[in-house]
Amino acid sequence: MSKLTDVPKRILIGRALRSDRLGETLLSKRIALPVFASDPLSSVAYAPGEVLLVLSIAGASAYAFSPWIAAAVVILMFTVVASYRQNVHAYPSGGGDYEVAQTNLGPRAGLGVASALLVDYVLTVAVSISSGVENLGSAIPFVVEHKTASAVAIIVLLTLMNLRGVKESGRLFAIPTYVFVTGVFALIVWGAFRGLVLGDTMEAPTADLEIQAEHQGLAGFALFFLLLRAFSSGCAALTGVEAISNGVPAFRKPKSRNAATTLALMGGFAVTMFCGIIGLALATDVKMAENPAHDLLRDGAPVGPEYTQEPVISQVAAAVFGDGSFLFVVLAAATALVLFLAANTAYNGFPLLGSILAQDRYLPRQLHTRGDRLAFSNGIVLLAAAAAVLVYLYDAEVTRLIQLYIVGVFVSFTLSQTGMVRHWNRLLSTEGDPAARRRMVRSRAINSFGAFFTGLVLIVVLITKFTHGAWVALLGMAIFYVTMTAIRKHYDRVAEELAAPEGPSEDSVRPARVHSIVLVSKIHRPTLRAVAYAKLMRSDKLEALSINVDPTETKALTEDWERRGLDVPLKILDSPYREITRPVVEYVKSLRRESPRDVISVIIPEYVVGHWYEQLLHNQSALRLKGRLLFTPGVMVTSVPYQLRSSEAAKQRAKKNLEWNAPGSVRRGLVETGAKRPTPPNGKE
Amino acid sequence: MSKLTDVPKRILIGRALRSDRLGETLLSKRIALPVFASDPLSSVAYAPGEVLLVLSIAGASAYAFSPWIAAAVVILMFTVVASYRQNVHAYPSGGGDYEVAQTNLGPRAGLGVASALLVDYVLTVAVSISSGVENLGSAIPFVVEHKTASAVAIIVLLTLMNLRGVKESGRLFAIPTYVFVTGVFALIVWGAFRGLVLGDTMEAPTADLEIQAEHQGLAGFALFFLLLRAFSSGCAALTGVEAISNGVPAFRKPKSRNAATTLALMGGFAVTMFCGIIGLALATDVKMAENPAHDLLRDGAPVGPEYTQEPVISQVAAAVFGDGSFLFVVLAAATALVLFLAANTAYNGFPLLGSILAQDRYLPRQLHTRGDRLAFSNGIVLLAAAAAVLVYLYDAEVTRLIQLYIVGVFVSFTLSQTGMVRHWNRLLSTEGDPAARRRMVRSRAINSFGAFFTGLVLIVVLITKFTHGAWVALLGMAIFYVTMTAIRKHYDRVAEELAAPEGPSEDSVRPARVHSIVLVSKIHRPTLRAVAYAKLMRSDKLEALSINVDPTETKALTEDWERRGLDVPLKILDSPYREITRPVVEYVKSLRRESPRDVISVIIPEYVVGHWYEQLLHNQSALRLKGRLLFTPGVMVTSVPYQLRSSEAAKQRAKKNLEWNAPGSVRRGLVETGAKRPTPPNGKE
Questions:
Q1: How far is B359 from chain A (nearest CA, A)?
Q2: Residue A265: which CATH number?
Q3: Which residue from A163, A347, A506, B40 has the fewest beta carbons nearer than 10 Å?
Q4: How many distinct structural domains can be found in chain A?
């Protein structure tokens, strides 16, 4: 592990952890906050702007409604945080929304939540990276001029990092997250001080623009609908709140209490930042429009297609700190970095959820075992490819991607909270202690309100955003749902077919004898080893078998065989068409026909080389023969490997793969043996 | 094999042959001619035009040199045919140029010939299909308007046909080839009759155009060089002549004599057609230019980029038969079809040559066994991809592709003929009989002249075409040469490492005992079967091993195990990180450390499903574990398959694959057991 090439990586993220040191990495609240909250905190980088964007449809005067919308988002945030504090106490295993829905509402609801979360991970990557690119672009124009390419490049970079097995490191998350939070608070405090105490006039770069309302003088239901749409967009600030509820096992003790405290802290930070930025945007006269080229006017004329609309946070920072000032650049960089970290949490969460789903046989079983590098890699590549496609299709435009985003989150919020209500009902039906009952009733009330409110928001989101793109997210969910159902059905069918019959006896007819056949092409070390091993097995009958594809070679083989005095009879099968597989399979079948109760043991000498391209040059007929024999009943197929010197390289690689740590191990916490579900993190981070 | 979908195929090419009926398919001369000669005969569709094209650089007056060039090509053709008649008698095994060079000039020359032939197969596909598209386009303008796309589409079609395992059928080849030959002869005879007897003035569609010479009044060395270039292009008529020498085993007896006769017939046809078309082109005043848009003038002005230059054969046909007449369309269709058949011969020849090279360990060994569908498929896809890339890069322009073409052919001609001279020298050094010696001296003289003349042409081709594109062909040859050398080196190194030491004993320490381990995850039919089989093997120690990834499941397993009274001890290994591979590998290693002379037999129950996507859902950990165990010394790995119902589908598929016939079987001829190289066809068809 201490290769020279690892040095930059180690500097970046600290020494890679072996999994047996995982137990040492329980998180303090100080570190847990940035690990789990980079997603919800980072969303304040785009959520306030999205609210203003939607309002601008009714003209700049509609911005006056933004404090009301902010208030609604704050109430929703408090509701969700309060609800999830109940989850954290009730499900300290870190089961998350999937477990809550699965346990209380049944497998279909659970699968629905899982589908929603999978789609949401994809969108977390797409939205966070697109927004990160926009924020980075406010400091480095080149990036925003090549927005789609930059976003895809960052997806590729994150993918490569995660494929290599980068471990989440608390410290790595902590620094930019705290810089970002401190920066935004400094922005709000300094802005308030300048405005209220010094009486400075702070002007955003867009303060002198005018907004051409798409619908001037909107009123009545139309206005109400627009406000709902703006609210829906503001709800983007809530994405990722549930992450902490999945990460409880990763906290230090008392786990649940620490998690609940962190949740409250996170909610407080998010709400303050969200409101502060909206307030500053109004104070500095920020103008944003859905279609800036056309709807923003400078001196009465549209600004035109060359105009780049800066994110609201960077416009506010320009007004308060000064455009291009040191603090402005630091905040832009921290914002971009936090957004990329938020995307990275999806890279960790996606395979973890996959692992839980695999345990419940909704996904291929190999996703379940930790450290199955190949399976994790497939998940990561799937996630990255889907996100990259979305980024490409939507030109890395946050405003368009956000339309797809919030559906999934609220599907899982609603189902999870509904599940929690059921959970308390179930407990209440058996609980006798009045104090405990009181606590439960209180919790149930909180979760009921949570379920109601998030359900309402879900309906609002669906109504206001369906045609704007939410249907894409729903389609994605449906695809995941159907696929996972099909996989589960397949596993169930196979399990039924495999089920062992009761009684002491095994499969139908008991086998009587073993007839072993060593396949021989020529006499070399692997052959000699295979013959030696086969003799040790003391089967009822042992013979060597060679396929005659070249009479000269076969003659040399038989002579050599006799000369060496190998006391195993050598049988030669003719193969005029130079086939290997067919004569062997037919010979095995004929043996089975003669004595149906015999088991045929086919022993194949193989040699092991180090590189895949070397592998291509060897053992291909053995491989195919093995594949074919597996379909022949009453056969066991034995490989006797002979390790060539070059196989040492492959051995080292395989060892390294074993020592590889799956992304997301940190937030998964310690493995607790003895629990029903030892490490059941899931849900969206 | 008698599915409904096979009906169109069967109508097209006759009932598919099982390989055990291969012996019935020896070819009569009447059928052998079209099978082997579609490539050389079809080249008269483009070779005359290429001669005129090059001459046009010096203006239309230079066309007067074309009879001289035709005469040179005829002499060359007679030389090559006479030379190969010697090959056919001397190497009736059908070894072809590769065998001749390998045997007489050593492995490097052999490999050089092989590389040249491989490149040539690619170019045969690219050139023949491009020319076919041009000829088809003279009847169906749409095709030539989308030339590259049409050519690639036809490559894809041929590839799919060959991947499915279409068998060459003599009759399939016979009809269009004979229609084509008859058509061209009719064209020549009717043209001569009209011109010489009736005194008609026949005018080609381009008769009224003028050629603007790129170099007016070329003389001296420059003119000589141009004539050499024109001659080089005309040599395209010789590609594929050597095919018959590879196909001798496919002829009826007396094989060599029949092959020699067919060779002479083919040479006669080709020469007559080539000269006839050049003569008619001069008589009907055909005008062709390298760069027609610019160099062809109509009424003094260039014809411009919309002008499509028709192939010379279709211009002549238009003049003689009348443009769009029935005979014109028939000839155009037959020409295109013969050209596509010529391309198809490369699809057959490429894997056959690969098989010979694999036998000599220059290519992966699995190419050697006949009917290895996967290996053949890889070869076919490689051929098709390379040809498609060339077609795409060169816009399916025959004129540009032909620059690459002839190098490979003449490399193999020259080396093969040089090898034949050596062959006769060797025989002459031992032969005593004066009559035989006389014959040998005569043959040696023919081959010497052949070697000298083809070598000279090779030098001319290299000089005149190197910068025009021949370097691409040389680069391709170099790549094949280096790759094949590297593969051979790898095989040699491995063979050395594997070589069995002399003496009766096997590898170093003789193993003492077998310790068998049955891996168990849960108790189902495959497990029970594996345990039953393992018991039969009577190893010295037998235990079952389960990895505890989930304590609850493990508890259920141990209880079930005891309840069922399986009299095999069950060992449980803890795996706190839910890994399977590592604990097993480490346990096996620890056993080996305790008793280094023990052999560990790991028995893995597997279940077999029918579809690849089902396979993805199962046995992945078993697969990975097996892969990992192969690198562990002193281990044998046994799979005990359990066939699920759905595996029946895969079994059927596998069976069908076994019955699949590799392309090119017909020209490969009957397998003769007992020969040193039973079926050694190779070389280019």
A1: 10
A2: 1.20.1740.10
A3: A163
A4: 2
Q: Which residues of B touch A352 (CB under 8 A)?
A: none
Please check the confidence at residue A468 and state whether its pLDDT lies above 80.
Answer: yes
Q: Which is it for the CA torsion B104, B107, B113, B118, positive or negative?
A: positive
CB contact under 8 A, B504 and A565: yes
Task: Give me the DSSP letters along A663-680.
Answer: TTHHHH----TTSSSSS-
Residue at B245: amino acid letter: S
Low-confidence ranges of chain B (pLDDT < 50): 1-24, 506-508, 670-685
- Under DSSP, the state recorded for A524 is B
Tell me the chain B residues in contact with residue A624 when contact means C-beta distances shorter than 8 Å: 366, 372, 374
**pLDDT surpassing 80 at residue A390:** yes
- Mutation target for B interface from A639, A659, A661, A671: give the one with most B CBs within 10 A: A639
Residues A413 and A553 in one domain: no
Interface test mutation site (partner A, options B483, B494, B579, max chain A beta carbons within 10 A): B494
Phi, psi of B210 (to 5 degrees): -115, 155
Q: Provide, as residue numbers in chain B, all residues whose Cβ is less than 8 Å from the Cβ of A626.
A: 639
List of chain B residues whose C-beta atoms are within 8 Å of the C-beta of residue A632: 641
How far is the alpha carbon of B415 from chain A, nearest alpha carbon, in Å?
28
Section A16-42 average pLDDT = 68
Helix (H, G, I), strand (E, B) or coil at A27: strand
Greatest mean pLDDT among A66-70, A402-406, A606-610, B240-244 lies in: A66-70
pLDDT of residue A680: 34
- Chain B nearest-CA distance from A649, in A, is 10
Q: What is the DSSP letter of B511?
A: P
User: Distance between CA atoms of B136 and B335, rounded to whole angstroms?
Assistant: 8
Q: In this structure, are A559 and A411 located in the same domain?
A: no
pTM of the model: 0.70
Q: How far is A470 from chain B (nearest CA, A)?
A: 31
Of B365, B599, B641, the CB nearest to A630: B641
Chain B contacts of A636, Cβ < 8 Å?
Answer: 533, 603, 638-641
Q: Would the CB atoms of B524 and A491 count as touching at under 8 Å?
A: no
Q: What is the DSSP string of A120-160?
A: HHHHHHHHHHHHHHHHHHHH-HHHHHTHHHHHHHHHHHHHH
Identify the CATH number of the domain in which residue B558 sits: 3.40.50.620
Chain segment A133-145, per-residue pLDDT in tens: 988 888 788 888 8
Going by pLDDT thresholds of 50, 70 and 90, the confidence category of residue A354 is: confident
- CB contact under 8 Å between A525 and B507, yes or no, is yes
Other C-beta atoms closer than 10 Å to the C-beta of A665 total 23
Strand positions, DSSP E, A380-427: none
Sheet holding A599-608, edge to edge: A570-574, A541-548, A514-519, A599-608, A635-643, B635-643, B598-608, B513-519, B541-548, B570-574
Kindly state whether residues A330 and A244 are assigned to the same domain: yes
CB contact under 8 A, A511 and B531: no
- Type and span of the H or E element at A637: strand A635-643
Angle between helices B312-321 and B326-359 (to 10 degrees): 150
Answer whether A525 sits within 8 Å of B638, measured CB to CB.
no
Q: Which domain holds residue B118?
A: 27-492
Three-state secondary structure call for residue A641: strand
Which residue, A78, A114, A105, A10, is CA-closest to A412?
A: A114
- Determine the distance in angstroms separating the CA of A9 from the nearest CA of chain B, rounded to an integer: 24
Asked if A614's CB is within 8 angstroms of B551's CB, the reply is no
Residue A502, in any domain of the structure = no
Q: Looking at per-residue confidence, does A308 or A4 come out higher?
A: A308
Which chain B residues have a beta carbon less than 8 Å from that of A358? none
Q: Closest to A490 (Cβ–Cβ): which among B578, B614, B630?
A: B614
